[in-house]
Amino acid sequence: MIRTRVLGIGAHLPANIVTNDDLAKKVETSDEWIRTRTGIRERRIVAEGEKTSDLALGAARAALHDAGIDAGELDLVICCTTTPDETFPSTATMVQSRLGMTRGAAFDLQAVCSGFIYGLSVADNMIRGGQAHTVLVIGAESMSRLLDWNDRTTCVLFGDGAGALVLQGYDAKGDNSDQGILNTRLFSDGRLHDMLYTDGGPSSTRTTGFLRMQGKEVFRHAVTNIAEAIQASADAAGIPVADIDWFVPHQANQRILDGTAKKLGIPAEKVVSTVAVHGNTSAASVPLALEVAVRDGRVKKGDLVLLEAMGGGFTWGAALIRW
Question: What is the per-residue pLDDT for 290?
Answer without folding.
Answer: 98
